[in-house]
Design a protein that fits this description.
The protein is mainly alpha-helical. The protein has helices at about 15-20, 25-40, 45-50, 55-65, 75-80, 95-100, 120, 125-135; strands spanning about 1-5, 85-90, 105-110. Helix 2 runs antiparallel to helix 3 (about 45-50).
Length: about 140
């Protein structure tokens, strides 16, 4: 069960922005700049969450999302022998994988009134989507 996970190399806008920093620079000043920027943009929940990460972990996670893996996470998902589910936030749609995944054996579910940060925006909706996927 995944929620709007990266399936291919390239990362999202936030990951690309963090990974663009040299690791040492991100650790010494980029992390704090990123947290401050999120607060300034009105994204206090993301700023609070990111402020709890170690700068090194944030940079390495973002870099991993940009670089990807071999085989890709998509290939790994499609190769699962259990029925996988990808959960999307309604505000994120349309999303290219929403239509693509079912043709590859992946169930999709939508959390109403939520975007990428669905666990913060609609936690009961995420719980319902998880329960539906497990049913």
């Amino acid at each position: 069960m995944l929620s709007e996970s990266n399936l291919d190399a390239g990362g999202g806008a936030g990951s690309r922005k963090i990974a663009a920093w040299a690791e040492a620079d991100y650790v010494t000043r980029g992390h704090e700049e990123t947290v401050r920027g999120a607060r300034a943009d009105g994204n206090g929940t993301w700023a609070a969450s990111l402020s709890l990460w170690t700068p090194l972990a944030a940079h390495r996670a973002a870099t991993c999302l940009v670089v990807g893996e071999t085989p890709s996470w998509r290939e790994q998902l499609y190769a699962l022998t259990i029925p996988p589910t990808m959960i999307f936030g309604e505000k994120t749609l349309p999303h290219p994988d929403f239509d693509r995944l079912p043709g590859n054996g992946v169930k999709v579910s939508v959390v109403a009134n939520a975007g990428h940060s669905m666990a913060w925006e609609n936690p009961s909706g995420v719980a319902a989507a998880i329960a539906q996927a497990l049913a």
